[in-house]
Amino acid sequence: ALNSLASDPELARMGKAKIEFTADGESQFSSMSTRFFAKKSGPLYLSDIDYVAAQQSQSILRFDENVIGQPIKMQNKAFAKALGTHAKSQVVYYAGGQFKRFKVHPGLDQSVEDGTVKFLVLADGRPIYESKTVTPYSKTEPLDLDITGCKVLELRVGSSGDGINGDWAIWGNARVE
User: Fold this and answer.
1) Which of 20, 45, 71, 74 has its CA 20 to 30 A from that of 136?
2) Under a CB-based contact definition with an 8 Å cutoff, are residues 175 and 47 in contact?
3) Pairing relation of β-strands 72-74 and 77-79?
4) Which residues, including other chains, have CB under 8 Å from residue 158's CB and lie 6 or more apart?
5) Can you tell me the distance from the alpha carbon of 169 to that of 124, in angstroms, rounded to the nearest whole number?
6) How far apart are CA 134 and CA 62, in angstroms?
7) At residue 147, does pLDDT exceed 50?
């Protein structure tokens, strides 16, 4: 359930959402809960919220741009909202069991010609999607995955065994609803 964002000039300027973590006073983890405050109703894009952890073999995780900071284009389509990452990578979000759907269009940025990756989505450590090998020429489709009750959403990109050159992975329009 998304609520209206309390006025916070810095968050409004950045276009980000605010996340609050709370826990009972007795234990550190058993009663943790999270509240998400979005600027507007509708989908909550992962590029607009903070991740819990991220790591990758090259470059840095990018929000709404590819790994070298350029606009994202995949299969001749521009993506204004996306995560740009590089194989091998892992990005973890705390969803707090508040969302039902994870929607995303995974693929490779068409700026490269020789990358090959595999995409993996885990909900609470359980795989809910694993792609076949994806190349810049692969036709990929948008995904609509059930994450009802999911507390931890994890996105991984792996190399397909031919090294990581050109493995500019895109999590296009990645959002929770």
Assistant:
1) 45
2) no
3) antiparallel
4) 87, 88, 117, 118, 120
5) 22
6) 20
7) yes
**Distance between CA 99 and CA 1 in Å, rounded?**
8
Percentage with pLDDT > 70 across the chain: 76
**Cα(111)–Cα(126) distance, integer angstroms:** 32
Contact 129, 146 (CB under 8 A): no
Give the burial class of 63: count Cβ atoms within 10 A of its Cβ; 0-12 exposed, 13-18 middle, 19 or more buried: middle
Determine the 3-state secondary structure of 127 from DSSP.
Answer: strand
- Could you tell me which residue, 26 or 117, shows the higher pLDDT? 117
φ and ψ of 23, to 5 deg? -145, 155
Angle formed at CA 177 by CA 158 and CA 65, multiple of 5 degrees: 45
Could you give the 3-state DSSP secondary structure of residue 9? helix
The tally of CA atoms less than 13 A away on the side-chain side of residue 168 is: 22
Q: Please tell me the distance from the alpha carbon of residue 91 to that of residue 55, in angstroms, as a whole number.
A: 7
Three-class SS state of 10: helix
Structure tokens at 13: 């300027």
Eight-state DSSP code of residue 7: P
